[in-house]
Amino acid sequence: MNTRKISKQFSIVFAAAACLLAVGVAQAQVNRSWVSPSGDDSNSCTAAKPCRTFAGALAKTNPGGEIVAQESGAFGRVTIDKSITIDGGGKYAGIQTTGSPDRAITIQAGPSDVVVLRGLTLTGIMFGAQGIFVAASIGALHVENCAISNFGGGIEPHGTPNVFIQNTTIRQCGTAVTMNWGGGRALIEHSRLINNGTGVYLLGGPQVTVRDTVASGNTFSGFQVDWGYLNIENCAVANNATGIYSNTVPSPNGPSTVVVSNSVITNNQNYGFRQSGTSTFYSRVNNTVSGNGTDVSGTITPLTGT
Predict the structure, then answer these.
(1) pLDDT of residue 181
(2) Looking at residue 271, which CATH number applies to its domain?
(3) Residue 84: in which H helix or E strand, if any?
């Protein structure tokens, strides 16, 4: 028997098998996958054979692809490790958690990855840890048309330089949006921050712009800056303990600047505008600040112009 010939034949067979396996894996990855309450994660995640959970569909979707809810349902917690869009598809697309260690969505993707979360309902039963938590810096996070409730933190995009939150309601969380990284930049617009502890909290030097947004019923502050830059434009800040608070914490003791334009600040229990420490607070003359426990506390620098 020619052992060299047999060995060569085995090598050819193994190489062919490896190629077939690679083709099979490639075919298992799709650009658009589907989830349904009647689906199964052993399926191919096509429209005809949807998966059951977001996690199951994620494993079968190419980086940069999208996962779409085919029918209304709850689709389980998910840890995202690549660029992806998860879209509720106009249905009820829910994720529920059941305790303080739990996060609805954890993002552990790469520094250039982009994650889009659209039309999702995230609910923490028994007060979950975070609704959306970015564990390490990604390229960009987009949160659109979502509802987030009953978490310690609604959205915590740690280390992410580009955050966009649009048409989203965050309610009954410890803090609705926490930005605590110097390189972080965020735009929040057309959103509602309701009945949280604090609506938006800045620490560590991020730059955040909020426009056309309501902050109401928050038990501490609608907006609070302990270190960072916050620009508020055309917002309603009402029925909080304090409306907008510009502060400088002793440590790490970074600069805080707040600029408020064309906004209504009213019926806040303790303060409308509150400035303390070495922080800077600018108020344009087109603001309405009235009906608060104390309308203005500290040094507020007026800005002229419309």
Answers:
(1) 85
(2) 2.160.20.10
(3) strand 84-87
Hey, is 26 helix, strand or coil?
helix
Two tokens at 52? Answer: 């059951």
- 61's tokens: 């979707």
Number of domains in the chain: 1
Any domain includes 121: yes
Residue 237 has pLDDT above 90, yes or no: yes
Q: 88: domain range?
A: 32-303
Distance separating alpha carbons of residues 65 and 58, to the nearest angstrom = 9
DSSP state of 37: T
pLDDT tier at 100 (50, 70, 90 boundaries)?
Answer: low
- Asked if 196 and 171 count as a contact pair (C-beta separation under 8 A), the reply is yes
Q: Give the whole-angstrom CA distance, residue 208 versus residue 65.
A: 29
Q: Is residue 131 part of a domain?
A: yes
At which residue do the structure tokens 């389980």 appear?
A: 76
Residue 22: per-residue pLDDT: 41
**Pick the residue with more confidence: 3 or 172?**
172
Buried b (16+ CB within 10 A) or exposed e, 96-130: bbeeeebbbbbbebeeebbbbbbbbbbbbeebbbb
Tens digits of residue pLDDT in 25-49: 444 589 999 999 999 999 999 999 9
pTM for this one? 0.90
Q: Are 210 and 233 in contact (CB under 8 A)?
A: yes
Q: Is residue 59 domain-resident?
A: yes
Q: Identify whether 108 is part of a domain.
A: yes
> What residue type is 151 in one-letter code?
F
